[in-house]
Specification:
alpha+beta
């Protein structure tokens, strides 16, 4: 008996989001671990040293979480008022945080002991950072000043009074201990050089600045405020590009572990991830509340931490890549592989034929049960996930000349499934041409049964779908006619110019005006 030949199902490109390496990378983030704090999560920062921990600034404390077991590790609570901007030093041994009373507090991470308190600001200090040498601090305050502090002597070295409004953003250079930038609600971003003791560059962001970043390689810096992210070139003093992807205020910026992706968090509850070479969005993360702070683990983006306005703190771990499963060979394979046997010329070799496993609808087709095969592929699971299988079986039945018989004599649920499938995918460009023929067959078969309310309703849906498609095609034809008219006018104008103005003007000579004209 000859073997049944399987149906060839055409593979169509799936419409929707394009799958990229970034999508695959960021979609590996698992289900979030959520923690509820008493106040808004103002700032999130990862410890640069492993095993990585994360500090969140909220209410009157800085809480440290262990990212290995996702549990609270320690608490820095020597604050009288709200704590802001808890930031680790590069070696992970010290942490500094600002506060609503304007003081900076320096803690030892291992023991949670308060080591220093820097007093000098007259208003809340929202951001503070260690310089690259680890022995100085830079603070950014609502008293419109930026201050440089010496850690060993607990004294202020220099104060910069360049801004005219609250300073809510600031960061330091990763290449020089003397360079740092600040962002203010006066819409400006300023670059400072501690050696010169003055602001060396000021740019206008165009909105209150909420966050700033400097590229680790230097040369460029980023500012965020309003609904835009701006990238600046400090050498040329100009804007490199402007990114507008959020529809509410952007509150936080950060780089991923290798610095090749830029992340922005916003009050619109989205985190946008950009490629720093093209500044295009490569992925988006969604959260349940407005986002105030974001941070990414320095260890290969393994953890993403998000702080939200309602006190919700989220930790998402990236799932490890699964190792390919290697199937162990059976005893039969071991015997065959170990045997060093070659058949002689006169030996008869019997091939080990493997019986093909047919799908359910193929078994029905093999038995010439056309109606039952169609019933199988019209089930909700198949027609929703793989509509090309349903269409493939219907085409096979059409080739066999049994499609009309398979669709006939249906009533109730079986007829509803068939007509719903045709109405659902009628406007799909992959199946449209074929389903038009199927709809004509349905009208021939079930036209006399229009008195049935269910049949009448499905045909009404089909009519509405056809009318909508005709209206859509008419609009496209009108738009195409307008475009053709514009192109025709453009080409005609170019032809007139070519006639009136020769292309080679070098051959033209202008005769001198005769002297008789002067008289």
């Amino acid at each position: 008996m000859t073997e049944f030949k399987s149906i060839e199902i055409l593979k169509y490109p799936r419409p929707g989001e394009k799958v990229t390496e970034d999508n695959l990378h960021w979609k590996k983030l698992g289900f979030p671990y959520a923690f509820k704090e008493y106040g808004a999560i103002d700032y999130v920062d990862f410890n640069p040293k492993l095993p990585s921990s994360v500090a969140i600034s909220c209410s009157s404390k800085v809480q440290l979480y262990n990212t290995t077991n996702n549990e609270p590790q320690s608490t820095f609570s020597r604050f009288k008022k709200t704590a802001y901007g808890g930031n680790f030093r590069r070696d992970g041994k010290l942490l500094v945080a600002g506060s609503e009373d304007g003081f900076l507090r320096l803690f030892q991470v291992e023991t949670s002991r308060l080591l220093r308190m820097f007093k000098g600001h007259k208003a809340p200090t929202h951001r503070c950072s260690f310089t690259i040498d680890g022995v100085h601090l830079v603070s950014f305050s609502d008293d419109k000043t930026v201050a440089l502090w010496d850690i060993p002597t607990e004294t202020k070295i220099k104060s910069f009074e360049e801004h005219k409004d609250y300073i809510r953003a600031g960061t330091v250079s990763q290449l020089s201990q003397d360079l740092f930038i600040s962002g203010s609600y006066d819409h400006t971003v300023k670059v400072y050089d501690a050696r010169a003791g003055v602001c060396t560059l000021s740019v206008d962001h165009g909105a209150p600045v909420e966050s700033v970043l400097m590229f680790s390689a230097g040369g460029l810096f980023v500012s965020a405020g309003g609904t835009s992210v701006n990238v600046w070139d400090p050498v040329a003093g100009r804007k490199v590009t402007e990114i507008v992807q959020h529809h509410k205020t952007i509150t936080s910026l950060c780089f991923n572990s290798d610095g090749k992706r830029l992340l922005s968090g916003s009050l619109d509850r989205h985190v946008k991830i950009y490629d720093v070479t093209s500044y295009e969005v490569v992925h988006t993360l969604d959260y349940p509340s407005p986002i105030l702070s974001i941070a990414v683990s320095p260890e290969e983006d393994k953890v993403v931490a998000i702080g939200m306005a309602d006190g919700l703190f989220s930790l998402r771990h990236r799932k490890a890549d699964k190792e390919p499963v290697v199937k162990k060979p059976t005893l039969h394979h071991k015997v065959i592989r170990s045997a060093d046997f070659k058949p002689a010329d006169g030996d008869i070799v019997i091939p080990n034929e493997v019986k093909a496993i047919l799908k359910k609808y193929e078994n029905r087709l093999r038995k010439f049960e056309a109606s039952k095969a169609l019933d199988i592929v019209l089930k909700d699971r198949i027609q929703k996930q793989n509509p090309e299988v349903t269409v493939g079986v219907m085409k096979e039945l059409l080739i066999r000349g049994s499609l009309k018989a398979a669709m006939a004599e249906r009533e109730g649920e079986s007829l509803q499934q068939l007509m719903k499938f045709v109405n659902k995918y009628f406007r799909d460009v992959r199946f449209q041409t074929f389903l038009i023929d199927v709809s004509m067959m349905l009208m021939d078969i079930y036209g006399p049964k229009m008195c049935d309310p269910e049949v009448n309703l499905q045909f009404q849906y089909m009519l509405d779908a056809m009318n909508n498609e005709c209206d859509y095609l008419n609009e496209l034809m009108e738009a195409g006619g307008v475009i053709e008219a514009i192109l025709a006018c453009t080409s005609k104008t170019d032809a007139i110019k070519d006639v009136m103005l020769p292309r080679d003007m070098s051959n033209l000579s202008i005769a001198p005006i005769s002297s008789s004209c002067d008289s």
